[in-house]
Amino acid sequence: MSTKYKDYYSTLGVSKGATQKEVKAAFRKLARKYHPDVNPGDDKALEKFKEINEAHEVLADPEKRKRYDDIGPGFDQMGYPPPGPQQRGPVDYRTVSPDELEDMFGTSSPFSDFFNTVFGGNGGGRRRQPAMAIRGGDIEGAVELTLEEAYNGTVRTLELQERGTVRRVEVRIPPGIGDGARVRAAGQGGRGGGGGGHGDLYIRVSLLPHPTITRDGDDIRVRVAVPLHVALLGGSVEVPTLRGRAVALTVPSDTQNGARLRLRGLGMPHLGGGGSGDLYAEVDVRLPVPLSNEARAAAKALQPPGSD
Q: Fewer CB within 10 Å: C terminus or N terminus of the chain?
């Protein structure tokens, strides 16, 4: 039965004249994308990772690469015999160690029939070779926060599944975080291969609606009930804040319904520090209901002449 030729250059997406540096860069990019830790349970990604690893095994080794180039696509018409064991030249790096390959692909050889035919693979009896340290893949998750949590900052504990184990990660979310923003936890993502470090963990923040307060950038807005007599004569009312306590708002006399009054520095903290936005209180004038006889008489006294 014939063995199908493998186009390793196409697998890594490089030209035949690619330098070792270009081969290395292409391999790193693809290995991170298709690494089993980044794609748990994805058989197609696992097979792709296997192909990428095999292509790199050949193209990263000058001796094997020359042998591969000499054979070319027509090798299956040449009756090419399986070679004996080959001496390896110095290898700059590899994707994973033999033990890790066995963890991923079982005890059978992770290399194709083409590789074994041309380069003498020997299944489970592979030679020990130095492992490349691949940085793990980045992971992205999502959390929901109340507006109060976004105002004060908070900590979220996430559980990450990693090769049959659960790893807990605490992520600190800074005060002033905005809706849709991402928080980076460096080195807390997927575990790398060959002793490589973890990738990064990114948490996307979604803010839950507040029952009375609306956020507008770093400013916040709230409607405040103002009695009619306070709107007419002036006075003060209580305004809720995200600090957990209300503050007194001075309402000038002759304040119209819908007017916006500003309380400086009581908005959201600027992300990273350096002050806060403002709080805008929108006046919602409330009539005294039911009207007393005295209030009704006072209201009639305000009527323009001839408006009966």
A: N
